[in-house]
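Continuing the batch. This is chain 6 of the set; chains 1 through 5 are on the previous pages. Same settings as before, nothing changed between runs. Recording input and output for traceability.
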Amino acid sequence: MLFRQPRFSANDFIGHLPNQLHNRKATPSPSLSDEAWSAARRVARELDKILDGAGPRQAPIERAAAELRLSTRQIYNLLARYRIPRTVTSLLRATGTGLGKSALTRVSRRSS
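Output for chain 6:
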């Protein structure tokens, strides 16, 4: 019994442990450029046309891909992200737009 450890309960530590959720500071979301917002709005308009249309979607998807200068695979990926919430912000990422930098420049140049 020379090395007897003191017994502690969980209640002994509750007041001493920092509450990590309360100590977190809200990280400001990076501001997006007007160019990113306008490109995302333009893509949203095209995706709405596809989702609101009746009948097969292959032709409208190919038309939107040509209009936005994106591949049909990119249109399908954007549709998957946009279909449920139908918000422009669902097309944006924290780093810019969900389109990627090269696609963003293609869409924004086309709208100019």
